[in-house]
Amino acid sequence: MRILIVDDLEANRILLSHLVEFHGHVAITCGDAEQALQAYNTHGADLIFMDVVMPGVDGYVAAQQLKEVIGDYFVPIIFITALQDEDALVRCLEFGDDYLVRPFNQVMFNAKIAAHIRTIDLHRKTQKQHEELTYLHTRLIQEQEMAQHVFDHATQVNHQNCENIQTYISSASQFNGDVLLIGKSPAGGVYVMLGDFTGHGLPAALGSLPLSQLFHSLVLKQLSVGDLARELNSTLADFLPDYMFCAAVIAEFNASGNKMRLWSGGLHDSLILDDQYEVQQRISSLHMPLGILDDEDFNTECGEYDLKANNKIIFYTDGILEASNDRGELFGRQRFESALQRSKCDIEKVRKGLHRFTGYQAGVSIQDDDISLVCIDAGVVTFKKGEHKTSEQEAYESSRAPIPWAISLDLTMAELRLGSPVSQLVDMVGEATGLYSHKPILVLLLVEIFNNALDHGVLGLKSSLKDGPGGMMDYYSEREKRLDSYTEGQVGIKICHQLLSTGGQLKFTVSDSGEGFNYEQIVGGTNDESHGRGLFLVNQLSESMSFSDGGRCIEVIYVYTTD
Amino acid sequence: MSSVVSSTQQGSRLDIAISGRFDFSILQDFRNAYTLDVEGPIEKIVIDLTRSEHMDSSGMGLLLTLKKELKLDSGCIEIQNCRPHIRDALLAARLDHFFKVD
User: Fold this and answer.
1) Which residue in the set A186, A527, A529 is minimally distant from B83, CB to CB?
2) pLDDT digits (tens, 9 = 90+) for A151-201
3) I want to staple B24 with a disulfide (CB 3.0 to 4.6 A). Which of A517, A548, B58, B85 is the partner?
4) Residues of A with CB below 8 A from B84's CB?
């Protein structure tokens, strides 16, 4: 230990430094306050002995000055004084940490030093732990911020702007253990899933990551809610530890919003409200939460509900019923349902009502559990325009400017036998133009003109084969026979992309090695037969359709606009 | 993805659901659904396209063949839950004269 001795009398300084050095400490001596400050700044000290009565600046003031320099470190100052009055000793403890009254014996002096060293050690240990804690805390905050960023981005795409849906979501901590997923169905309807993971905070929120990714990919496949639940269940069963699971409702609304299919496991009753906002039907959960059962025990059974346009459907997690006020009363089902009715399902008003009840103030009160409330208006499902672009569309638009291009290919008989190139070609067109949402219609156009060239051109099949009972069967078995046996034949496909001021156009040119046909008859063709519809459809859905080379070559133009 | 045709009969009503492509590749299965796999006369058919992502003129041909073979009146065959582009194609082909398109 480095011990600073401050005394104006040399004899005292010598005596004290002997005592100190005898016990193996280093003594630094000074005669007044100024020297003491200088010595502390130069050498530092672990413990200071200070005389009270000194000429000029006295010991109390010197101690104050030193404490200021010492700051947050812990360096005890022990006054050595001959003063015995209570007042003087109280001041010693006020400005310093301890005192020793002259004359003192050596045993007492040593005991004081030993006692203070113990305190110093203890203090240093605490200080070190404090520093470690501060470091860990900072790191934890950084990690949480990073996790938060990931969560925010992963769940951002989930709230596609469906105008039928109102939500109130409030998490008890930085991370939400409730998960709300909304996905536009390819059929024009909407899928809604509300889940509540065991517990709350980060561990509960973790499960929502794989869940939301999977949900969106399954929605694109237009899976039934039961099958969707099964897929989510088996993924969660793999991901989550045994004690964790996810209570959930999964609903699909058709495009006209008059039908709801619902799978529900472990969550509170879902509600269907009538035009007076009164509960018309309670749908209790049929199944266990997701993530518990093995796939073979899983039950995909779901309910189907007919809806009227003024029905409201309510999903919620238990946080809202279990929210309590300072008297310990719960918000409960009755208050909740009457809040829905009084507010006419204005979810913002329900939220305010809940806060009035609990006395909740953001940033002040603590909320016990995650709260989620979703209200869906039955009736035609609509999305805010332009705000539900797929992530691939957004990535495309931000990275590329449109360019004109052309691809062309000639398929021989051997290649034609391998199957239709249409979906592959349309995928290429989609990638090259970003026209992902146009793909279904492009597939249809190209399928029709390609099949026309192959069937009627290369394979020379007559549509009249389809007439009569079993005609379709005859036609397609003959088609298969000829496709397998013909050796000569070719279909050429050319796709040309051009830019227009309002967007662009795709020109499909398909030519075949067949005998050609009388196209004028076909295009004006009748419609009540079970054939001759393909080119009629192409004509309807495209900008223009024209033939050349005696019907062996067809050119179809598809125009698109960009917004 | 290969297509799947599944059907359920309730009295004289037949529900047929198509998943995958609705084109000539399901010809046999589709025909079986309303010929071999039914008992007694059928008066109403509901075709659910919730899980069908593509239909072309050959699929429409199958629908028209069904109507012709069962000699059903317009309005007895309902097509439900089509995706927007399939609906557009059905309307463009004016098939809404023969089928009730939801």
Assistant:
1) A186
2) 777 765 555 578 899 888 888 777 788 888 998 887 788 999 999 988 777
3) B58
4) 187-188, 255
